[in-house]
Amino acid sequence: MKKKIIGMLFCAVFAGFAQASVDGSGTLSLWHMDNLTTVDFYAGTPGTTLETRSAVADDDSIVTGRNHDLAFGSVNTGGSTYSPALSADGLGHTGTAGDRALVFSGAQTAVAPGAWPSIAPQNFKIDFYMNVATAKVATLAMTVNTFEIRQQQNAVTGLNELIFYIYDTGPTKNIVSTSFSLNEWDHVEAWVLNGSAHIALNGVEANPLGVSVGTLQNPLAGHERLVLGSRWDSSPSKGRFYDGMLDEVKIVPEPATMILLGLGLAFLRRKN
Q1: pLDDT value at position 232?
Q2: pLDDT tens digits along 151-207
Q3: How far apart, in whole angstroms, are the C-alpha atoms of residue 29 and residue 248?
Q4: Alpha-carbon distance 69 to 58, whole Å?
Q5: What are the residue ranges of helices labelled H in the chain?
Q6: pLDDT tens column, 88-101
Q7: How far apart are CA 144 and CA 147, in angstroms?
């Protein structure tokens, strides 16, 4: 009976890997990348100039009225020239009809004004699917002064790696994921939980299993927004622009899924 319970627990944790993410009471932001809309976006830092931008709506079907919509383009005034685009139908991570993804071709970025609070949560998780087209140094997701997920090519092995940078009150910490292949969908999970930072690729956590971190720094004033597809200053010379697709991006301020996983591992240890 205990084996069945443990099996069900792990199935519940990992069952959503190849499916669309769903909104929940603890979700901070969720973008499916399937449909376009438009939003009012205040450009500049801090945002003062009102612009109408193409966007992907936040799925707030459970937490209604959250409206953390993902605006296309850079944070700068007139930054819509850096807008990404949705893929053709069926090119999202599931490959099914109706599933699209957000396409970055090396000069685009997207910004979510309400996706991140001005005070960094000390526990959080960001979860998404990526399909990297070009091997280079590029930023997939970041919030200034808090965290960054960056791809790069290992100078020694030549392998493509994903790095989770955490900016705490001490020196910057980072974890390097297992290697990934170009032009394939991969599931990325990066989280900080109770002073320990982690990153997993397709359900396999990178070694070392957790890096000790101190108090996460708060985002710089005016920079509390989540940026996808480039670093914050997305000018051509500084942008670290991403070339590839992103799908099903979700942020949870308290990564309960990982707490559940830890409970399951504790059950296993007790059984053994």
Answers
A1: 79
A2: 999 999 999 999 999 999 888 999 999 899 999 999 999 999 999 999 999 999 999
A3: 10
A4: 5
A5: 2-14, 256-271
A6: 999 999 999 999 99
A7: 7
115 closest CA partner among 169, 58, 188, 77: 58
Smallest CA-to-CA distance from 192 within 221, 218, 166, 154 is with: 166
Cα angle: 232, vertex 120, 224; to 5 degrees: 35
pTM: 0.86
Low-confidence ranges of the chain (pLDDT < 70): 1-19, 233-237, 256-272
**In angstroms, how far is CA 124 from the centroid of its own chain?**
11
Give me the sign of the Cα torsion angle 6, 255, 31, 233.
negative
DSSP structure string for 201-217 = ETTEEPSSS-EE--PBP
Q: Which CATH number fits domain 27-253: 2.60.120.200, 3.30.950.10, 3.40.50.1360, 3.30.930.10?
A: 2.60.120.200
If you ran DSSP here, which 8-state letter would residue 218 be given? P
